[in-house]
Design brief:
19 helices, binds ligand V47
Length: 434
């Protein structure tokens, strides 16, 4: 409707200001429509009315509420509540940042997108995660490790194509430790100035710490590892490696992986040093739905205490190159995936952003996710390998495609940097105003 309205007005020669006002007017309409739906739900005798009342009054929903929602047959009701929560959160964030009411209204209809490169310098990994199709044992066919020059070259090319962020994660490779990565980040910062380096899962940080030694031979703790990487140029940290926090699922799928407490502790240390980080959840690895809600609860409590998470990314397992389906794991349905997005928006009331990661959702479901609580579409991505190895259809989208996905959802696309600042100079920002 927004896009149609704009096209109509543009054809009739209506000035840009009037068009912008029209968009704001329609945005307010959409705002109030999910709000009204939630209000009606709250005052009805529907079985989700008590949760709708909590959502309306910004009362935190409980783990029990989340557990009811994660399998609810009432998808539209869930989606409307999450959509309202998304709009309200964006409005609140904008007001917190000192923006005007009109700008805050516009933000409540905005979806962020970003131009980034996923760089996976090595797939050599001594970890044993059953769902991972990307990793290779040392010496195995297909194993690779990039030289620093090759990795920097890729970042250089991505930057020349507009990337503002490089997202670096790799396998647990005893040959690529803190020294290799410090050199890599330093070289990136030197040769590709201005690019944001978002790198290393908590699992990698823990792995580095097993080997890293100070001059006196003693072990480096997490803070010291981060400080060394920050000195090299690390800017923030992605959210991978969380999988599902449930001990039972981890014992079955990735018994060697750091436990939930260590994952959370490493992020807490990062936050204490001023690094912003993200958080993920990998669903479809044999967990029960309630374990997804408990995972979100762990993150919500962690965010209450350290406050440094920017974004939550609900991931979806892919099954090519692993044996999960043969072992009886049930894949997520499209409805499950939307429920995960919507419930995360409602449970994670202290996260500003919920990301729709199109590589895993697919472009179409990612677009629908934007009406189910997601406010961020990641990203151009360029050369993703982890999900691609497990059967993802594409590994890159153009800026125009991302913008069109968002506009097709009748929302306003806006390019962001890694820290969720709008990119004012982007040529796509002009398009986004359309
Ligand atoms: O940590 C592993 C997961 C993650 C499979 O922080 C799989 O901004 C699907 O963490 N099928 C990497 N997923 C991706 C990731 C991420 C992505 C986008 C943005 C951000 C961010 C983080 O992918 C891994 C693991 O949890 N994964 N195997 C698989 N077969």
């Amino acid at each position: 409707m927004t896009g149609d309205c704009f096209a109509l007005l543009a054809m009739t020669g209506v000035p840009a200001l009037a068009i912008t006002q029209c968009i704001i007017y329609i945005s307010v309409f959409f705002n109030s429509s999910s709000k009204t739906f939630t209000e009606n739900l709250a005052s009805s005798n529907h079985e989700l009315s008590d949760i709708a009342a909590k959502v309306l009054s910004s009362e935190r929903i409980s783990v029990e509420d989340g557990t009811r929602l994660i399998t609810t047959p009432y998808l539209i009701e869930l989606g409307q509540m999450a959509n309202y929560a998304r709009q309200r959160k964006a409005y609140e964030v904008a007001k917190r940042q000192g923006l005007s009411v009109a700008e805050a209204e516009q933000r409540s209809q905005t979806v962020w997108w970003n131009t980034n490169l996923h760089l996976n310098p090595t797939n050599v990994c001594i970890g044993t995660c059953d769902f991972c199709s990307f990793a290779r044992r040392p010496g195995e066919e297909g194993a690779y490790t990039m030289s620093i020059a090759e990795a920097v070259d890729r970042v250089h090319i991505a930057r020349s194509e507009g990337a503002t962020e490089v997202h670096i994660v790799g396998g647990l490779n005893p040959k690529t430790l803190i020294q290799y990565y410090s050199e890599l980040i330093e070289a990136i910062k030197r040769e590709v100035p201005g690019i944001h380096v978002k790198a290393f899962t908590a699992v990698e940080i823990e792995f580095f710490s097993q080997f890293a030694r100070k001059d006196d031979g003693s072990k480096m703790n997490y803070a010291e590892i981060f400080s060394a990487l920050m000195a090299a140029g690390l800017d923030s940290m992605p959210g991978g490696g969380a999988e599902i926090f449930s001990r039972a699922v981890r014992d079955e799928m990735c018994p060697d992986k750091i436990p939930a407490e260590t994952w959370v502790e490493i992020h807490r240390v990062a936050h204490s040093l001023g690094l912003r980080t993200n958080a993920t959840m990998l669903a479809g690895i044999g967990e029960e739905p309630h374990e997804r809600v408990e995972h979100m609860d762990v993150l919500r409590r962690a965010q209450d205490s350290s406050g440094g998470f920017q974004t939550f990314i609900p991931l979806v397992c892919h099954y090519e190159g692993n044996d999960l389906l043969a072992r009886g794991v049930k894949p997520l349905t499209g409805v499950d995936q939307l429920r995960n997005i919507a419930v995360s928006r409602l449970m994670l009331d202290n996260f500003d952003n919920i990301k729709a990661y199109w590589i895993q959702l697919g472009e179409k479901l990612a677009q629908i996710a934007l009406s189910f609580g997601a406010n961020d579409l990641d990203g151009t991505v360029k050369a993703e390998r982890i999900t691609y190895a497990a059967g993802a259809q594409k590994r890159s989208l153009t800026e125009d495609t991302l913008i069109n996905i968002i506009k097709g959802a009748r929302l306003i696309p806006r390019e962001r940097d890694t820290l969720y600042n709008p990119i004012e100079s982007s040529p796509y920002r002009v398009l986004a105003a359309v």
